TrEMBL record:
NCBIfam families: secE_bact (TIGR00964). Essential subunit of the Sec protein translocation channel SecYEG. Clamps together the 2 halves of SecY. May contact the channel plug during translocation. The lineage of its organism: Bacteria, Pseudomonadati, Pseudomonadota, Alphaproteobacteria, Hyphomicrobiales. GO terms for cellular component: plasma membrane. It is found in: Cell membrane; Membrane. Signal peptide: none annotated. This is Protein translocase subunit SecE. It comes from Hyphomicrobium nitrativorans NL23.
Amino acid sequence: MSHGAQEAVLMSKFNPFQFVQEVRQEVSKVTWPTRKEVWITTIMVLIMVTLAAIFFLLTDLVIGQLVNTALGLRG
């Protein structure tokens, strides 16, 4: 059977109600985080973003100074 014919057979067997039932079964298997876990994770992400921003700010300032010094510019 050709690829197109196989695809047509698969499409004809598609049942949207069965699909929704299978999706609900899979969602019921998911372990959802608690509010406390979400809050702690959110705080951790904000702290890491702040630290990364400070790191890149300082790195940019240092590299900018080095470039200005190397080019003989005064800033």
